[in-house]
Amino acid sequence: MAQKKYLIAKLTSCLREDKIQLWKPPYTNEQKEAGEEMKELVEKYSSKLNISKNDTENMLEEIRCKAIERGTGNENFKVTGIARLDIYLPRRKSRKIPLETSLFITGKELRSQIAQEYALQENAVKIIINKKQLDLGKTLEDQGVTHNAKVMVLQLEQSDEETKRKVQEEELQCKKEKEINDKMQRTKKGLEILAEREEYLDPDSVPYLDIANQTGRSIQIPPQAKKALVLAMGYHEKGRALMKKKEYEIALPYLLDADKHFCECSTELLNTVDNYAVLQLDIVWCYFRLEQLDCLDDAEKKLSTAQRCFQRCYGENHERLIDIKGSYGREKVLFLRLYLLQGIGHYHSGREKEAAEYIQKASSLYGELSIDPDKVDRLSLLGFSEQEARLALRACHGNVEHAANLITNRREEKAQIRREERAKRRRRLEDINTLKSMGYPERAAQIALQKTRGNLDQAFKFILDNPELLLEDDDDDSVAMDQFQVSQESIEQLTYMGFSRESAEQALKVFKGNIHVASQTLAHYGGVLPPSLLLSSEGSSPSEESTSSKDLLTESAGSSSSPTDEDMETDAVNEILEDIPEHEEDYLDLTLEEEEQIIHEYLSYIQVPQQ
């Protein structure tokens, strides 16, 4: 299959160079049949490309027929508005088939049409167009689908039930489709909860995701940017977990969702982490393993993006990695996969020389990165995991003693970083409790400390300078501000401090009897409430006037209205955490078994140039 793509690409390139248009006379007559001049082309290109005449004739005819089909489709679209879509069926039916349809039908109708036309089980079909999963409820036009678009069809199969009766299979497929959709929704929910949890939460009681640099230390990121990055990385980890199981059909939608969220992050942020580059590799790898690289028009662009990102993160000659980690042996597996995919792309485009260059680079790296199983066993006997052993041996060029020292030192470094980060969150929690003990709402304390980078004195002043923070809704107290009954004793306490009776009563109503907060606020504003609080006390609800405080930092998504909701949220978060690997370099731990097989396959296709 790969060889045929290569030869067709070579023939297409020759036709383009010779400015030959097979769909026009003299190569195609009025009846759209092949002209006599086609025989001359067969002779010419068979000799030039060293292909048999029969194969050359068949491939030229295939190119000619596809060109005529496309031309006819273009004319038909102009006249009738009926679009032609290129349907790429699942790899077990590895072929491209044209489909004519209106662009005003919904995604569900297109799925139905494809399933009926090609005998697929509708509920088990997913459709990818323009690197996005098709929305079943919107029309094709609304989703940017155009004439001649490439449509990738994924079929989620239940392999262990293939021998059962068809009706049972359909039931199982429907059930699996629902399970997958439900799981994607739980993934989204869990990631959103984790993305909005912040460093002030108790690290012992609440699961919390942190963004760390290559040394393992936390990176300070603005809340909104952090949310997008956590969502992107979470979807990526989910997709990677499925890729490890070779479930590429299910993994791809997660990877595409990750790509969408990464695009919401700033370029400056993406330049500091290699995650985006790794994602581009994983997306192209997924398309390749699904045998649908033709559906990914920008595969070459994605690989170039990955290469540039690696250079920015690691340095042109990996100097940043060496400075941070002491070596770059572990990251070489990423370059192996990058070179391999680039070589495959060149080969499928008919560029044999470039294909040979990149695939040989991948082959050379494979020889360098192959791990001796005996060395892994020796490290395992010392109490290290196989993953630790592989990563360390690659970093230390196969030296077992150096690898053992590296693992030990890294374990100690990570333990120290964890202690420091935990202590930092503990201090933040203590500071929040200090502000709470002074009478300030927990959410106000959280926001103030986040805005003042943990400075307790500045946080106290920040709250007073932003009094709307004190109006956060209290879920446990549904009494409206204007209905709150102020005790005479509380008013007298404030008047004793020197505040007017009117101001004292207003402040106590606003803060629902909290004398400490009322007195601090009145003192800060010269004995009267600021205008924003006066407006609130005259009739507006606290929730309406506290909008700006919510804009300062998104509210935590961990709250829920019932135990059932809490259980569902806990399950959603736990599902996410299950897919997040314990080792921070898990993405570098490739066994290279797949890569070895593919390298050998493509080396057998290309003719190695003579030196």
Could you provide a short overview of the structure?
Helices cover 60% and strands 4% of the residues. The chain is mostly helical. It has a five-stranded mixed sheet, with helices on both faces.
Would you spell out the secondary-structure blueprint of this structure?
Elements: H1 2-17, H2 37-49, H3 53-80, E1 83-88, E2 96-101, H4 107-117, E3 125-129, E4 132-133, E5 150-155, H5 166-195, H6 223-244, H7 248-262, H8 267-270, H9 275-289, H10 299-314, H11 319-325, H12 332-348, H13 352-369, H14 373-381, H15 386-395, H16 400-437, H17 442-451, H18 456-465, H19 488-496, H20 501-510, H21 515-524, H22 531-537, H23 542-545, H24 547-552, H25 563-579, H26 593-605
Parallel strand pairs: 1-5
Antiparallel strand pairs: 1-2, 3-4, 3-5
Can you put this structure into words, describing what you see?
The structure is a single chain. With 611 residues, the chain is mostly helical. Helices cover 60% and strands 4% of the residues. It has 26 helices and 5 strands. It has helices at 2-17, 37-49, 53-80, 107-117, 166-195, 223-244, 248-262, 267-270, 275-289, 299-314, 319-325, 332-348, 352-369, 373-381, 386-395, 400-437, 442-451, 456-465, 488-496, 501-510, 515-524, 531-537, 542-545, 547-552, 563-579, 593-605; strands at 83-88, 96-101, 125-129, 132-133, 150-155. It has a 5-stranded mixed sheet with strand order 2-1-5-3-4, sandwiched between helices. The chain is globular.
